[in-house]
Each structure stands twice: as C-alpha cells, then as structure tokens.
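Hi U.,

Before I forget, here's the chain from the pilot set. I'm dumping it here mostly so it's searchable later in email.
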Amino acid sequence: MHDSAPTASTEAIRPPYGPVGDGFPPDARRHWDVLLICGASGTGKTRVSYPLARLHGVPIVEVDDLVEALLAMTTPEQQPLLHHWRTHPEDGRLPADDIADLQVAIAEALVPAVEAVVANHLETGTPVVVEGDYLLPGLAVQESFAGIPADGRVAAVVLHEPDEAQIAANYLSREPGHGDQRARARASARYGARLAALAAEAGVPVVPARPWPDVLPRVIAAVERSSRANAV
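Structure:
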C-alpha cells in the first residue's frame, strides 16, 4: 500500500510556481500544474512519483484508480479495451510485441478520462502529479484539455528501464512468491520501448530508471530543462 499523498498547500497552487524543495538548487522551480509520470509496469514510477509529490507538496493521482473506477461503471460491451485483460486473461500469453500493442491501445482508450483529470486541475489551478502505466507522453504537448488551454502548464517524463532481467527482479521484489516473471518483464520492456519512442516524437524527456539513488533529481532536472525549452 502506498503512503497517503499530501494535500496541496495554498502557496504551492499560487503563481509564481513553487520551489522544488530542500537539497535542490534554489533557482529550480515547478513550471507545471500537471506532471505526468509515464512508464511501463515495473520501472519504478512509484519510487519517483510519491517522493516527487511530497517534495512539491502536491497530491497524486494514480491512473490505476481511474481504470478501476471505469471498470466498475462500464461493461465489456461499452469499453472492450478497458475490460480486455479481465475478459481475455489468456492474452497474457501472447508474444511480447502483441501485448505491447494492446497496452498502447488501452492507453489510447483511457485518454478521455486522463484528459478530464488534467482539465480539472488546469481549470482550478491545483497542481498534481499523475502516474501510471497507461499514460501517453504525447498528452503533454496538447494545446488544450476539454477546452481549457494548457498554456505550457502540463509536463511529462517517461521513466524507462530497458533491461528485462531488472524488470523481472523488480516484480519479484514487490510481489514475492509470484513465480517466473520473465515473460511479463519482456512485455513490459517492449511497451516501455514504445512509450520511449512516443516520447521522443513528442519532445518529452525519457529518463533512465537507474541508477536509483539519483533518479529523483534526474527526473526533476529533465522536466525543468524540458519546461524551460518549451517556454522559449
């Protein structure tokens, strides 16, 4: 179970955007209202997104929670892609590239729900970190969300781990006793490669998940550079 996310402070939601926090350069600022932490399963998004949200004093939204809500409110006939893994569990044995294709398709089906969350935070001016497997990095370059102008307030980063063996080890670390994770890790690595390619097309930074000790400052620096470049 994850730690409870903090509530955004009044200072954090009021321009000029807030500082990063102790231990980081004093001129490092938060230039976003919505930060999307993208990446395939098992790459370490949680170990980045929760500390990052605490650092900025902002709440966090997990896309997994959106998926669970939508599954409870829809039928397989209404949203076949969202229900795919429940209605076709046998597809977990498909070739890794086919599973990666399915993951991209599911992420595309979830775009309207993610857009609604982003639009809400843009409209209210309340900053948030959004993290999940089904986040497409191209969302960060949309001009508007549900009619609300982005105005450069949406940023994204893809956390990338290309090593299948490391992803398998990550799975076993958080889910001990679940047996051989190599096939699952292979599919995750292929999906992660797709996300990294989509990020490159959109101009969204891709940050290697390792080395772990400095992944948080590397993510912050990558988002900062990207935000500055887009502001020019």
